[in-house]
UniProtKB/TrEMBL annotation:
It comes from the Bacteria. Residues 177-311 form the GFO/IDH/MocA-like oxidoreductase domain. GO terms for molecular function: nucleotide binding; oxidoreductase activity. Pfam families: GFO_IDH_MocA (PF01408), GFO_IDH_MocA_C3 (PF22725). Residues 1-33 are annotated as: Disordered. It comes from Actinocatenispora comari. This is Oxidoreductase. InterPro entries: Gfo/Idh/MocA-like_OxRdtase_N, Gfo/Idh/MocA_oxidrdct_glycsds, GFO_IDH_MocA-like_dom, NAD(P)-bd_dom_sf. Residues 41-167 form the Gfo/Idh/MocA-like oxidoreductase N-terminal domain. Keywords: Oxidoreductase.
């Protein structure tokens, strides 16, 4: 049985915190209107770019796909530039706009604040939203520093509302199935993990500078942008905690042209990060995150080796899972492909017939589903801010290890 036991089922009773008393919403036309069986909750999103578009797709879709005790209404979107924000609202389906995130948090029709902004803004927005009694969804990595993440996690524990960190790849059905098979003991005791996240969008040294290349804005480079995903995925899949790391990081291009052509700016983050890790339970692992893997567009690759078998996943083939069952006779053994599109696979009963593939955007809809279910009284929201803090501590240990050139312990 999957850990997500059938979409189209309410994941809990009505009555979660910060859910309004409005009656069941009816099916309506028009962008921004919610459809579902439960009460409505107003969503306010900060950020209008890539992640804002992905999250908007999820909010537009979730209640039209899943039966949930809470229905999301796309109340308002916030961005700094009025014209761009208005255009984003019209394109993405938001009912209103704000140009100051504080005004968005203060809105009476916003019950949940969705943070899709650079890392240097996460803590301030999240803390304000939690203090205002709002639910929070915050993109990864949770913060730029451990201290910020600790404050956010503490505030979330005390708030009495629901807070989730956006490690969306947990919601890829094949990844969730991979975790279920591990939990069922299908590969035995895990001995080794190898995980990498490979992209190539910075291989051209003339590619323009962006905020992702600034330590002040992003916290770190490939380490936080990509490495955070593999750290969280391994924690999710194995249940093991990182105990110590030995790392190196490298910046290949130290300066890049500004987008407006007025000069150049220094690159103050890593372009690649590689590290060894010791995890609880005697698990050892190798990890890599880079934006310089020529030809690799979005290759999140994870392999788990256990005493009874191996499981492997590649995001560029996200509907598939590789499984080697070591209990089979040697004459019959070999890796087999599991096509994760069956209705009893995680999340899949709400979607298409077997063999009709899902894409990148569906994981965001599944994230919204689980968050709304938690708000409606269902299972607690995971990954929580405490999960985000755990990943932040690993990223911090990797950075310190690379700087000090020594094995470095993590704190958990």
């Amino acid at each position: 049985m999957s850990s997500v036991d059938g979409a189209n089922r309410a994941s809990g009773a009505d009555g979660g915190d910060r859910v309004s008393d409005s009656p069941r919403v009816s099916t309506v036309d028009g962008a921004g209107d919610a459809v579902g069986r439960g009460r409505t909750i107003g969503v306010g999103m900060v950020g209008t770019a890539f992640m804002g578009a992905a999250h908007s797709q999820a909010w537009r879709t979730v209640n039209r796909v899943f039966e949930l005790p809470v229905a999301a209404r796309m109340a308002a979107i916030c961005g700094r530039d009025p014209a761009r924000t208005e255009a984003a609202a019209n394109r993405l389906g938001w009912a209103a706009t704000e140009t100051d995130w504080r005004a968005l948090v203060a809105r009476d029709d916003v019950d949940l604040v969705d943070i899709c902004t650079p890392g240097d803004t996460h803590a301030e927005i999240a803390l304000a939203a939690l203090a205002a009694g709002k639910h929070v969804l915050c993109e990864k990595p949770l913060a730029n520093t451990v201290a910020e993440a600790e404050g956010m996690a503490a505030a979330a524990r005390d708030a009495g509302t629901v807070a989730m960190c956006g490690f969306t790849y947990r919601r890829v059905p094949a990844v969730t199935l991979m975790r279920d098979l591990v939990a069922a003991g299908r590969i035995g005791r895990i001995r080794q993990v190898r995980a990498c996240y490979l992209q190539d969008w910075l291989i051209d040294p003339a590619a323009p500078w962006t905020w992702r290349l600034s330590a002040d804005r992003a916290g770190s480079g490939a380490l936080g942008d990509l490495g955070a995903h593999v750290v969280d995925a391994v924690r999710f899949l194995t249940g093991a905690e990182f105990e110590a790391v030995s790392a190196l990081t490298e910046t290949f291009v130290a300066e890049r042209p500004l987008p407006d052509g007025t000069g150049s700016a220094p690159v103050t983050v890593d372009d690649a990060a590689l590290f060894l890790a010791r995890l609880s339970g005697g698990v050892v692992g190798t990890f890599e995150a880079t934006r310089y893997a020529t030809g690799r567009k979005n290759a999140l690759r994870i392999e788990l080796n256990g005493t009874l078998g191996t499981l492997a996943f590649d995001l560029e083939r996200l509907n598939e899972l590789e499984f080697f069952d070591g209990t089979q006779p040697a004459a019959e053994a070999g890796f087999r492909r599991i096509l994760v599109t069956e209705p009893d696979h995680p999340y899949l009963s709400a979607w298409w017939p077997p063999g009709h593939l899902l894409g990148y955007e569906h994981a965001f809809t599944h994230q919204a589903r689980d968050l709304l279910a938690a708000i409606g009284g269902g299972p607690p929201a995971r990954p929580s801010f405490d999960d985000g803090l755990a990943a932040q501590r690993v990223l911090d240990a990797v950075g310190r290890s690379a700087r000090d050139r020594t094995w470095t312990t993590t704190v958990h």
